[in-house]
Every structure is written in structure tokens, then in C-alpha cells.
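Q: I'm writing up a methods section and want to include an example of the input and output format. Could you take the sequence below and give the corresponding predicted C-alpha cells, formatted cleanly so I can copy it straight into the document?
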Amino acid sequence: MHDPYTRRTFNEYIIVNKSDKLSDASKRWDHYHDFYELYFYLGKEMSYFIDTKTYTIYKDDIVLIEPFLLHKTVYNPTSERNRILVLFHPQILSFMDGPENEGVAHEIEMLFAQKRKFSFRSTDSKKLFYDAMQRLLHASQTENSSFKNTKVRCALTELFITLLDLSYDEDIEESNHTLSPKEKLVHDVITYINENYTSDITLEMICKELYVSKYYLCHTFKETTGVTVISFINTKRLSEAERLLRYSALNITEICQAVGFNSISHFINLFKKAYQCTPSVFRKNLETEILIP
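A: Here is the clean output for your methods example:
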């Protein structure tokens, strides 16, 4: 998998992690996972790349990431990596609905589907959300409690109900449109890949579409993202293949074709390199995953 938390999430289902270190993180354009992520920033300023857009994130801003959405954090050398990260398995949503909060799970799903960034206008709203986050963090750090899982799930539900209630006080979401020419090219390349990954894509086709030379395309993309264009295309296809393995009845050959690979052997080799097992074994392992206690 592409994320260090992935295997832990399968066992824990909710992870709350706080960090206040100076950034030493490198750029990771192949970063995606099969769970939800809420990123609560407590530093001064950083950037968050999501899908094809870059968002400037300030203190007390919230970033929401859906499963299988490509994203990365970008910190300046002197910026603080001061954040609280909340990761949770989609199955957790089934525990959030009840007699007194029916429909919350659907509202949360829509929240992640429609929003990428939250910025509260008022200090009161920021404090209310911060306090709810602290309660979740405290519950997750509770030791030797028979009811820890229940406490964490309740605190997570409270956190999202608070966010939903405070959404009226939200600033309009805006992405950073002041892209440099190189960043604009990368944005256009990723947009093209996202729209065409199910078909055959070649460097020549991208160059023709964007009116750039092959050398400039490859050099600029690698310089800006740290990975090659072909690597990014494969990552996009593998993320979609994982989603289909989990949530569709398509067989391996059909999945291979659906995500744009022309060769089943090439697909299996790339998948095995990324996931340390074949697609068939990956799907078989899903059947033995432990249900949430």
C-alpha cells in the first residue's frame, strides 16, 4: 500500500495522531488510501494538493480527503508540521446513525464528497471545533479502558456533528489559483490523466494535447512532483483497481481493462510491486478482514 497508516487502520479502524514537529516530509504524489482522512492544521501556513488543485492552508483550517483521492501535503522548510490527523475506515460510518442522529452518516459522506477545505470565520466556531477535536484525541489516548473503542467512536461522531453544525460559519472554499507556468502544466497533465486513464495514454498524446515538447513535459513533471508521468498514470490506475477489487464484482481481467492497462501480466506485476501480493490474493484477503468490534 502507499500509506504507512493503511495496515494499522485495518486493525484499529480509527486513528488519531498529533504531530508538532518541523517539517521534514518529502513530496508524495502517489499518496492515497482506502479510508477517510480529516487533517486539522495548527501551524501557520502550508499547502495541500488534492486531485488537481492546490489549497493554501492556514491555522485552524480543516482538510477532508475521501478514500482513493490522490493528495499530498507540502510544507516549507521552516513551516510547522503541527496538525491533528484523523483517519477512519468507511465502515465506521455505519456506527454513527442512531435514534437521535439518524442520517448523520449520509451527511458526513456528502461532506467529504463536496468539500475539500473548511475555514471558519469566527473565533467561537474555531474553539468549538478545537474542543471537540481535543475530546477525540483524549479518548483515543485512553489506556486500559474496556470502553475505549466506544468512547472514540462517540467522540468522532460528536466531532462531525459539530463540524456540520458549524458549517454555516464557513468561509467559501478556494483553491490557490496563482500557479506558476510549471505548476499549471502539471495541473493540466494530471487533469488529462484523471479524465483519460481508462484509455490508452502515451506521452506523445499528452504533448499533443498540451502543446509542449516531450522533454519539457517529462522534465517539468518530474522536477515538480518527484515522479515520472508514467509512474503517476500507473498510480492512478492502481488506486482505481484497488477500489474495484474492494467494491465491485468485476474479475481481474475486467478490472485490468477498466482501469486502462493493456496487459494483464503488466497489471499484475505493477500491483504486486505496490501491494506485495497479486490482485487475486488481495481480494481473497479482503474476505478475512476482521469486522469492527
